[in-house]
Amino acid sequence: MDIEKIQRILRMDPDDAVDELLGAVEKYYGEVPYILQYLRDTPELLIPKILYDSAIIREFKRLDPKTVELISIGVSAALRCDHCLRMHIRIAEKLGLSKEEIFDAALIAGTLSNATVLAYATRVLDSEEGVERGHRCEVCDVGCNGCDGEGE
Fold first, then answer.
1. Max Cα separation, the chain?
2. 126-135: per-residue pLDDT in tens?
3. Residue 64 φ/ψ region, left for φ over 0, alpha for ψ in the -120 to 50 degree band, beta for the rest
């Protein structure tokens, strides 16, 4: 969204701005997400949220809409946000993404979520045992398990 359009929206009557922005969201998605419906009566929160979200998700030019939806599916799955996941699956299907492509995004999210859980748990476990792994050694300048300070 270009700056002139943002300025125009910010000069509008708040109720008119809300209607215009929610209409644009509905046109893009085919529905208005719940959180935006919930914020409808607080334009001071809704308007900046939609403007920000639009700049990142709907008008982002470096990633195509299908990629944005696959990322959204992966994040929604990883965060276990059922209503977001369902909405992004519907949008992905409207964009022509296959069930397999959608599932691949969920698989990637699951793999990364698994790695996050394991990395967190093993670091806490090591810290409780006083073990330091993978620190950056000043002598050998690699991740190591604790050399004697002489690069070994």
1. 69
2. 888 888 776 6
3. beta
Using alpha carbons only, give the angle 131, 137, 145 rounded to the nearest 5 degrees: 35
pTM here is 0.73
Number of domains in the chain: 1
Query: Which domain range does residue 23 map to?
Result: 3-104
pLDDT digits (tens, 9 = 90+) for 11-35: 999 999 999 999 999 998 889 999 9
**Structure tokens, 146:** 């604790």
Query: First and final CA of the chain: distance in angstroms?
Result: 55
CA distance 15 to 132: 56
Establish if 72 belongs to a structural domain: yes
Give the DSSP letter string of the chain: --HHHHHHHHHS-HHHHHHHHHHHHHHHHSS--HHHHHGGG-HHHHHHHHHHHIIIIIS-SSS-HHHHHHHHHHHHHHHT-HHHHHHHHHHHHHTT--HHHHHHHHHHHHHHHHHHHHHHHHHHHHHHHT---SEE-TTT-SEES---SS--
- Which residue type occupies 25? V
